[in-house]
Design brief:
Helix content: over 70%
Largest sheet: none
Order of helices and strands: HHHHHH
Strand content: under 5%
Distance between the termini: 20 Å
Radius of gyration: 21 Å
């Protein structure tokens, strides 16, 4: 506090140790991961059932390829978003919380990118099967643009705007 007063500025941030900060950040991260995990697990579960339907056999080769890519992306997204839980379990009590938070944060971001890819591929497949229209790629591109805006552009813009001063 004295440093802020001496510099004439207002003190920003929290008065916490590295371990306290890591604990707080871990709790925040786990709450975020819970939301993303639920979404990816529900989507992945539905994807796994498609191959057992009658309609799957009637899909074109292209649509079957899109489906297979979508399932693999969903599996990878699930792995990345569950990864922080396994990481925490395996390093708990070893005084590695700050390092675990950094790695879990990276896994979560990777999981979100993979979830974006899974959702995009799922939407592409569903719209191709449902409509067979040429506008599908444009509609999917618009939705991807929306996801990019909500998930990455606005958060990065906010971070840049409020931390670059």
């Amino acid at each position: 506090m004295a440093d802020a007063a001496a510099g004439g500025g207002v003190r920003r941030g929290r008065d916490e140790t590295e371990e306290e900060r890591a604990d707080r950040m871990w709790q925040d991260l786990i709450q975020e991961v819970r939301v993303a995990q639920m979404g990816v697990q529900i989507l992945f579960g539905f994807l796994l059932t498609v191959v057992f339907t009658e309609k799957y056999a009637r899909l074109s080769g292209t649509d079957q390829t899109i489906y297979l890519v979508t399932v693999v992306l969903g599996a990878c997204a699930t792995g990345a978003l569950i990864g922080p839980v396994a990481l925490h379990r395996l390093v708990a009590g070893r005084r590695l919380k700050p390092q675990a938070v950094r790695l879990a944060s990276r896994l979560t971001l990777l999981g979100l990118v993979l979830l974006l890819a899974t959702t995009t591929a799922s939407l592409l497949l569903i719209l191709r099967v449902a409509t067979h229209d040429g506008f599908v790629p444009y509609l999917v591109a618009g939705v991807v643009g929306w996801y990019l805006l909500c998930w990455f552009v606005l958060p990065l813009w906010t971070r840049h705007r409020h931390t670059s001063r």
